[in-house]
Write a structure and sequence with these properties.
The protein is an alpha+beta fold and 408 residues long. Helices cover 46% and strands 13% of the residues. A hairpin with a 2-residue loop joins strand 7 and strand 8. The longest helix is centred in the middle third of the chain and has 32 residues. The two termini are 42 Å apart. The relative contact order is 0.17. It binds protoporphyrin IX containing FE (HEM).
Length: 408
Amino acid sequence: MSSNTAAPPCPAHVPAELVREFNLNDTPGISDDPYAVMSKVGHDAPRIFWSTTHHAGKQPGSWWLTRSADIRYVLQKPLLFSSKETAAFSLLLGESWDLVPLEQDAPRHTAVRNWLNPIFSHLRIRPMESGIRQTCVRLVETFANDGGCEFVGAFGRPFPITVVLQLLGLPYEHVDMFLKWEDQLLHSHDFGVMAEAARKIKDYLLAAIELRRKTPTDDLFSQAIRAEIKGVPLSADEILGFCYLLFVGGLDTVASSLAFHFKHLAEHPDLQKQLRANPEIIPKAVEELLRRYAIVTTHRRATQDTELAGIQIKSGDWITICTPMSAMDEHEYKDPEIVDFTRTVRSHVTFAFGPHICLGMHLARREMAIALEEWIARVPVFRLKPGSRPKLHAGGVFGVDELQLVWD
Ligand code: HEM
């Protein structure tokens, strides 16, 4: 990251000494170890700085926060910091529908979450567990006796994606197409490619919604079509925005997290031994791995002039909420890069915080715990394949493209 006083135009109220050239795509070293880069930025940069690049490419830039406490503050103040257009996929198409509930603000957001929270509660997830476990075991048994696997392709992706596609009622046969669209939408630097992917996803989802209007099922898309809030059905745009968010947000977040967690365990056999000796610590271990490997970067926009992290920002300014930065904050966590299952962690922001806290967090946690339980029950101590190098990417959702594991 470099200080950039001669940067592209940035708003007059931004102090020159707080301007930096930084983004999550092409900063040197970011694909080798995105968390090391986050750690260095958190260590070297001011508590708040202005980056001249912005996710949607249309804004002059955005504020970045390096401290977890400031990130929590923003996430907890939805009246001061709006979620409107945070992902802005519809803008790519010249349209204006919101991702639901992600891009909604109160009071509509509150009403929609009141409808959704019970659907994603612990109680509703529990009956799904035996099906999730069966999917997990079936996959692990395909390679457990092979002495190794490429984790992402063999397990990391198919496991959570099977689960989420079942929830959405979408066919697994189309998974390669879905992942290609998602990759283009989230990771391309070319707005034409992003817009094309956004259009394909929208057309596919509209057709899926139409099908369920004619022939209702039990999946989440059908539930959105049937839903009523205070006696009024969701609008067509809200149904699309809800299906779109689950499709994009649910598809690879668990996959990315799992791959980072298994990479870490492969590099630390001592941690695997702890899990094997005491499987009852798995839920706590999942929490610590989640804390260490936050993956999502999101955005908020100031609704009024206000003070943030000790400086004055203006109404309309964008704020980048980089949860991996929070995970690496040494003011929040002692030795943040160390995974310590005995750590007494303050709650982390991997699933965000405040009213927009991840709707799928209970499901995600259970999937990750089940994955660890079934792996350690079936696969001996695993490690990185000698000579191999995990392929990682940064961007809006950090992830792993390839992870070669071996075991005896
Ligand atoms: C480890 C996996 C996951 C991580 C790290 C994660 C992370 C996040 C984060 C950080 C947010 C807040 C974004 C913001 O406020 O701008 C969020 C929101 C959301 N997540 Fe997740 N997520 C995960 C899994 C899932 C799954 C499996 C689903 C659905 C099946 C899901 C559905 C959602 C939805 C619907 C929201 C919007 C909530 C709202 O705006 O009220 N997530 N997630």
